[in-house]
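The material for today's practical consists of a large collection of protein records. Getting from the letters to the tokens is the skill we practise here. To make this concrete, we reproduce a full record directly below:
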Amino acid sequence: MIAMQKNDELKIYRGQDYIISDHIVIHQATLGDICEYGEQDYYSMVYQLTATPQSMKYQLWKMGVDYTAISSFELFYSILYKLYPQEKTSILFGSLDLTRFQIMQHKENGSVFLYQEMENQPVIIDEFTYDMMMDYLCQVHMVQRDEKQPANESTKMILIEDARDDYERNKNKEYHSQLKNMISAMVNCEGFKYNHSEVWNMKINAFMDSVRRVSKIKNANLLLQSGYSGFGINLKEISNKQIDWLGELE
């Protein structure tokens, strides 16, 4: 068994496979891979697999489940891991078939884990492994997970009602590609080094990073030009983070 590794930002940016164990390896898709798979289906799967009880509060409420009473891992092993067959998840997990896992429980401490055998080897997803998988998927796709808990019961019900309204409002809304607009903008931007033919080979994290980085560079340049012109903003009133185009992306 290969030892667990901590997610590495540079390796994620480079687009390397993330090896958790011999049989749990997460691949990072290219723009071309996502286009062939179907952008809407791809992101729907990513958002479903990385969902938290908070992001599914209305759906859980309809099922009679209190979203504040379960953890993200409990949601995963109760519902989410069974949603997609191997031919759907292969773009992320290769030959690993999530639907073949069985729910098991440690006799010693009662903790739950998912188990299957592949090539006569045990493959286990416990809560620690799950956290590593979700952290990687979220970092790759720049997904912010909702893990906020309501302050009280009345706030919880208001949030559920808001989530219901959002669900009803959006359930029949026509899907429009977000990647198409970003790709179009980037290949026509002087700060981007890939043309229309080359961009499809970019891994998704590097592309999304480029979108944010070019935007940060342009914004920093505009602020500096305005500040040094003598007729614009006062640079002393601007945060260094806004003009440091080498800084962290938000």
In short: The chain has a mean pLDDT of 90.
